[in-house]
């Protein structure tokens, strides 16, 4: 995304799930590799710079009830990262994370001025990797807010590349937005699934950039 695009009023930034439980910095219950203090600082600096350039910034936030279906502790006999079938769909078993009103759900970075936070994963029965809708098809407020703000182009980064970043970017592309994912400001859970996610996004016409280039 070039200098001219960065100044467009119709470009928005989605920072995906930059939350304590997903970072090594906070010894999170589901810490993504490489999410140390430098990574968090880099994301915060980039986000602040984009906000100062006049771009609208939106945060997604996992906001799970304690009895969420994705927690292995709520599915007796399962282990972390095990994939099981629930009502005909595959569900990864995750450690409890980003539980509502806990420190693990805290968004770790700030951007000066007004920003919008869209919560997801609040239905105990469905996971919600995408910032646009959960696995049951229930939509969040994200698309409505973006359209209300006149956003047509999106810069997306955060955690994790192979899950919530990918799902959010793919849904954004499917919804008609022009999408750029910043790989250098994102981290993945595992190398193989991250590489596959990047290829899947490219196949959707999503631009993958190593950095902002500004």
Name the descriptors:
5 helices, 214 residues, Rossmann fold, globular, alpha/beta, 6-stranded parallel β-sheet, two-stranded antiparallel ribbon
Average pLDDT, all residues: 94
Total count of strands: 8
Radius of gyration: 16 Å
Q: Report the span from N to C terminus.
A: 9 Å
- Tell me, briefly, the overall form: globular
CATH homologous superfamily, by name? Isochorismatase-like
Report on the structure:
By secondary structure, the protein is of the alpha/beta class. The chain has a single domain (3-63, 104-209), classed as Isochorismatase-like (Rossmann fold), CATH 3.40.50. The chain is built from five helices and eight strands; from the N terminus they run αβαββββαβαβαβ. The chain has a six-stranded parallel sheet with strand order 5-2-1-6-7-8, sandwiched between helices. A two-stranded antiparallel ribbon has the order 3-4. Strand 1, helix 2 and strand 2 form a beta-alpha-beta unit. Helix 4 runs parallel beside helix 5. The model has no long low-confidence stretch (mean pLDDT 94).
Write a brief structural summary.
By secondary structure, the chain is α/β, with parallel strands linked by helices. The protein has helices at about 5, 35-50, 140-150, 160-175, 190-205; strands spanning about 10-15, 55-60, 85, 90, 115-120, 155-160, 180, 205-210.
